[in-house]
Amino acid sequence: MNKSIKKYIYAILGGILPAALLAACASDDIEPQDTVGTPLEFIASGLNISTEGTISSRTAWLEVDTGGVAIQANGALRKYIVSDTLDNASTALLTSSNPFIVKPGGKIEVIGRFPNRYHPVGDTIMWTTCHSSTISDDLMLAYSNDIGRDGRKLDFYHTQVKIVVNIRNTQYIKNLFQNCWLVLLRDIDQTAEYNVNKSDKKITLDLIKSYNTEDKTPPHKGLNPANTVKWGSVTEEAAYSYETIIVAQKRATNKTFITMEYRPVSGIGPQITHNIDLSKFVTASEFEFKSGYVYTFNITINGSSKGDVEVTTTSMPWGKNGNDYSLTI
Predict the structure, then answer these.
(1) Top-confidence range, 139-143, 220-224, 321-325
(2) How do residues 24-42 score in pLDDT, each as one tens digit?
(3) Separation of alpha carbons 292 and 156, rounded Å
(4) Distance CA 11, CA 14 (A)
(5) Where in the chain is the domain with CATH 2.60.40?
(6) How far apart are CA 85 and CA 87, in angstroms?
(7) Contact 146, 191 (CB under 8 A)
(8) In angstroms, rounded to a whole number, what is the distance separating the alpha carbons of residues 291 and 273?
(9) Which fold has domain 161-191+210-325?
(10) Which fold has domain 35-158?
(11) Strand partners, 81
(12) pLDDT digits (tens, 9 = 90+) for 239-258
């Protein structure tokens, strides 16, 4: 073959091969992430809701299975469900039919949200509870800025406020009909807006404002002799126990917070109303119910007059057990 023809062929090949290699590299860079790498599964803790003493009587993971958990990553939201429980149901394996993908050695920022309402979590977030509380009134969030093939753990934390009202089982209470008591939380804000704070492994919420005010009726947990409550240094059973979930909010301490009414059957017997505000416990004019806390009010009723009511109250991070975390508000 003549030298000029050979040079021509080499010139052509010299142009084609680098272009082909460049195209291959470019194709690899822009290849959709969903087609390469490892499908992400998550090990979730904190979602075993029935162990947190909430008002749901359903199987611990049922609601997670039904509605799923919203997982947010790379600007997208996808539904994950519980495919298996681990460690005696204290943790769960979350999988998806359309999972996120992580490349070997790669990491992504992940936010988990339960209940699964398909709204992204940004710098701020809004949450609304209902008049009569259900398990869905709480918002649980999980966060990790370092999810990869070997880092799949998501710890879910409560971000709203749980209110517990226990009425002491005194002899005076025993003499009254148990189904005639009504407990109200007065002028409760139902909607709150929060700033979202991200740490390495957790999201916390700071209250911006709350609004949409109405009375709220905490569900009655029933007469349960096994529900013992510490009243000062004495442990006794609570005759009546009520629990509900509210959004974080600030309240004037001189306004009625809890109203307890006893309405006798057919008007027979005393009609009793007790109103409780926060001024007995807080010297400031305003008190904030903080995101992620449980506030418990233990109430002793010895008679029908205002002076016949004794109240003690504590607060602790929601999900923590034991008096080590107890704080008097």
Answers:
(1) 139-143
(2) 333 333 233 445 778 899 9
(3) 11
(4) 5
(5) 35-158, 161-191+210-325
(6) 7
(7) no
(8) 30
(9) Immunoglobulin-like (2.60.40)
(10) Immunoglobulin-like (2.60.40)
(11) 95
(12) 788 888 899 999 999 999 99
